[in-house]
């Protein structure tokens, strides 16, 4: 075994990197008392280890797209010698695989050898020939499958190839060659993800993430989406064996007694606090065996009187041993979060050069517009971070943290709404309305929410960098960020006891939610427009089915993941329903017969009787807690509140900590009349990009835009307008030396004055494959 290979062995339970070598050396020192000799040996070993670490980051191949972000490091980086800046304008559509229904698909295809795996045809998982688009097999009726992708794993001898995904709170596996369910996975073909979460499993109604997780060796590491209400389940990160489905380890994001960070919460907080979950992208350094977790906010997001303290590991970047789940280091980017400033995008693994030294780094971009950069192994910040004081909360029982970490790197978003930066496209009357609101509201970074006045947070819950919005060139120290200037307006309201009657607070929540998210499809009076009528919907639909439809989407309706429980209940009551009536059914969608090579249907059959039970709604009897609870909606009514640009992509040079270039992306017709120089409100949410080795960024944006951008200066090399909106991560792959770009363009244009799907020559909704045509 080479010395480098020995030094870079994957960590075991008792070892990690050089630490595993220092222990036996230390014993040798004690036994033989040759302190000076062994010290020299250890120093040499450490130097070699560091050299191996630097070398390892350059050994990772980015020549396939078998993972959600291309590779386990989630860099979205791809080696593309054949598509260059000189010939990228020759790209053409080579073939399209239609989804053949009216659903929105956010699915990121993965490609293994010559097979592409996609989601389409009424939630069917489909294997197609990546060169021709021909169907190989179809597994139908996977309603409830992970929305944004799946995982691929194969054994060392290539005889066992499987796809792993979550479906209706279960983990399942399908044979990647045949498309059939692997029945001996887990118990009866599935593993119940509701188990092992400090709650009664029967009370957990939602836990699976919309993201697929990540594969490391024979493990699948999963985050979760437990909801954002009081008493949501905790978002512990877990790893399962890809062969057996057995739980291998759990990292408690809300620490248990005796664990690191337990003292940063109230006693027994793990029994009732929820969230603190990884709902987005987990990045893995395969060579070192380190997983990097971008952990989100604890519940409840905007009022934390029942979770006083800094709340580790909420809002933290945590490096863990990917084999064992043990914490290596962490950094908390927001203490005691009151603003829903989740860590959403993928941590980016790249090599930077500082003071003539190459350092393997991990960087994270945030919702509130900051970039934090650390040594990948030690967790040491590579740029100074200062704790700065911010306003104190005035809410009863609340104790906001007195300081917050502010990096010395330049922010990529604005942090307040002022009369000077209000949207210049507002009408005079609307502008006057907002000037009056600003007079009585508070705005600015880390202003705590209040029940006495409105707080206008810039950016808000969907601002800054979100999931899918970061990528990197691992070798050059360049990180690329998609960002949007999107404010949220908050005002806390006291939670009243459950009631079948609508309160004024209920009406306010319904109005805000409906006007921001529903009116375009269901009409101003809920009578139906592009979507069906909602009048008296609650009379013939169970609340849990209603909740699942709103959050996960159905048909043409996209999922509204940022709707809180109180607003959902208020809307359901407004529609004639009673959310307190215990009735749980499964929402089986009508299916048309599917033509093609169907090999299976429905995945493993989950026992529905095990899913009955009531969610947790009160604190445990033995736990001290505040007398009152407060909530607010997400305040997402005004995506274009401030002046443009609203959506941008930028290049962040992490070698020197500067923004190299920035440019708007996307088109919006709401205020800007289609002017691309202004970007688009909400133009980067659910979008994505690919970085190529030839210096091209392929990026999608609102309005069906697909750009090829010069990574060196941000200039457009090529662009096209898709026939349908894309709300998924792009992919790239190579076959026989030819490179292809895949765009999932299966969403509809909504609330825009243009609809490219109705223009002559428009392509059907589906997966669009681009390439440079072969020379004749």
UniProtKB/TrEMBL annotation:
Write out the entry's keywords from A to Z: Heme, Iron, Membrane, Metal-binding, Oxidoreductase, Signal, Transmembrane, Transmembrane helix
Q: Does the keyword Calcium apply?
A: no
Record-annotated Cytochrome c domain positions: 505-579
For this protein, the parts annotated as crossing the membrane are 33-51
Instruction: Give the matching InterPro entries.
Output: Cyt_c-like_dom, Cyt_c-like_dom_sf, PQQ_b-propeller_rpt, PQQ_rpt_dom, Quinoprotein_ADH-like_sf
- Keyword Transmembrane helix carried by entry: yes
What Gene3D superfamilies does this protein map onto? Cytochrome c-like domain (1.10.760.10), Quinoprotein alcohol dehydrogenase-like superfamily (2.140.10.10)
| A Pfam cross-reference name | PQQ
Required co-factor(s) are: pyrroloquinoline quinone
PROSITE patterns associated with the record: CYTC
Q: Which SMART domains match?
A: PQQ
Kindly give the SUPFAM superfamilies that the UniProt entry links to this protein.
Cytochrome c, Quinoprotein alcohol dehydrogenase-like
By sequence similarity, the record places it as follows: Belongs to the bacterial PQQ dehydrogenase family.
Q: Name the chain's protein.
A: PQQ-binding-like beta-propeller repeat protein
Organism for this UniProt entry: Euzebyella saccharophila
């Amino acid at each position: 075994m080479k010395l480098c290979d020995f030094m870079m062995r994957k960590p075991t339970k008792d070892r990690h990197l050089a630490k595993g070598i220092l222990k036996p050396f230390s014993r040798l020192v004690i036994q033989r008392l040759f302190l000076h000799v062994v010290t020299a040996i250890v120093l040499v070993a450490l130097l070699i280890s560091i050299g191996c670490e630097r070398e390892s980051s350059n050994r990772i191949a980015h020549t396939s797209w078998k993972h959600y972000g291309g590779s386990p490091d989630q860099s979205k980086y791809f080696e593309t010698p054949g598509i260059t800046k000189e010939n990228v304008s020759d790209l053409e559509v080579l073939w399209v695989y239609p989804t053949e229904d009216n659903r929105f698909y956010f699915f990121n295809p993965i490609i293994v050898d010559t097979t592409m795996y996609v989601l389409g045809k009424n939630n069917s998982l489909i294997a197609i020939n990546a060169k021709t688009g021909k169907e190989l097999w179809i597994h139908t009726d996977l309603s409830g499958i992970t929305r944004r992708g799946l995982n691929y794993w194969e054994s060392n001898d290539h005889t066992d190839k499987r796809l792993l995904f979550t479906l209706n709170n279960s983990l399942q596996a399908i044979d990647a060659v045949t498309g059939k369910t692997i029945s001996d996975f887990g118990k009866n073909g599935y593993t119940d993800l509701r188990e092992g979460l400090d709650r009664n499993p029967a009370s957990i109604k939602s836990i699976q993430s919309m993201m697929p997780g990540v594969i490391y060796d024979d493990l699948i590491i999963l985050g979760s989406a437990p909801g954002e209400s009081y008493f949501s389940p905790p978002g512990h990160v877990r790893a399962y064996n890809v062969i057996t489905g057995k739980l291998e380890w759990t990292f408690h994001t809300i620490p248990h007694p005796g664990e690191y960070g337990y003292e940063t919460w109230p006693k027994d907080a793990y029994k009732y606090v929820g969230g603190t979950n990884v709902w987005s992208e987990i990045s893995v350094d395969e060579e070192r065996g380190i997983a990097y977790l971008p952990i989100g906010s604890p519940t409840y997001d905007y009022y934390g009187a029942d979770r006083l303290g800094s709340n580790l590991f909420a809002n933290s970047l945590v490096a863990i041993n990917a084999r064992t789940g043990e914490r290596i280091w962490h950094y908390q980017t927001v203490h005691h979060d009151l603003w829903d400033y989740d860590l959403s995008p993928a941590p980016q693994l790249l090599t930077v050069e500082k003071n003539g030294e190459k350092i393997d780094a991990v960087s994270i971009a945030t919702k509130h517009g900051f970039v934090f950069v650390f040594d990948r192994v030690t967790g040491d910040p590579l740029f100074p971070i200062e704790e700065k004081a911010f306003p104190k909360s005035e809410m009863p029982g609340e104790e906001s943290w007195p300081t917050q970490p502010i990096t010395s790197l330049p922010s990529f978003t604005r942090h307040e709404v002022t009369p000077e930066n209000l949207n210049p496209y507002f009408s005079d009357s609307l502008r006057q309305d907002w000037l009056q609101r600003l007079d009585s509201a508070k705005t600015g970074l880390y202003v705590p929410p209040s029940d006495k006045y409105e707080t206008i947070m810039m950016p808000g819950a969907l601002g800054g960098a979100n999931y899918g919005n970061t990528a990197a060139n691992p070798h050059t120290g360049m990180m690329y960020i998609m960002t949007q200037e999107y404010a949220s307006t908050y005002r806390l309201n006291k939670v009243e006891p459950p009631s079948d009657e609508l309160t004024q607070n209920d009406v306010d929540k319904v109005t805000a939610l409906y006007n921001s998210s529903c009116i375009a499809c269901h009409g101003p009076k809920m009578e139906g427009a592009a979507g069906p009528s909602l009048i008296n919907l609650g009379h013939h639909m169970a609340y849990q089915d209603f909740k699942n439809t709103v959050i996960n989407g159905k048909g043409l309706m996209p999922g509204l993941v940022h709707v809180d429980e109180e607003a959902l209940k208020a809307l359901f009551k407004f529609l004639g329903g009673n959310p307190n009536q215990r009735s749980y059914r499964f929402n089986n969608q009508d299916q048309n017969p599917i033509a093609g090579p169907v090999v299976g249907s429905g995945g493993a059959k989950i026992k529905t009787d095990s899913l009955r039970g009531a969610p947790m709604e009160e604190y445990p009897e033995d736990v001290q807690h505040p007398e009152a609870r407060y909530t607010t909606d997400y305040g997402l009514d005004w995506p274009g509140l401030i002046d443009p640009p609203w959506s941008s992509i930028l290049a962040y040079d992490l070698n020197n900590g500067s923004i190299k270039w920035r440019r708007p992306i996307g088109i919006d017709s709401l205020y800007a009349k289609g002017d691309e120089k202004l970007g688009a409100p909400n133009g980067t949410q659910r979008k994505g990009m690919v970085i190529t080795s030839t210096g091209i960024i392929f990026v999608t944006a609102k309005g069906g835009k697909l750009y090829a951008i010069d990574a060196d200066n941000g200039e457009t090399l090529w662009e096209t307008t898709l026939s349908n909106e894309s709300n998924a991560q792009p992919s790239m792959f190579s076959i026989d030396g030819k490179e292809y770009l895949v765009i999932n363009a299966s969403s509809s244009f909504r609330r825009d004055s243009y609809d490219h799907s109705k223009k002559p020559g428009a392509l059907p909704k589906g997966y669009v494959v681009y390439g440079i045509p072969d020379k004749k």
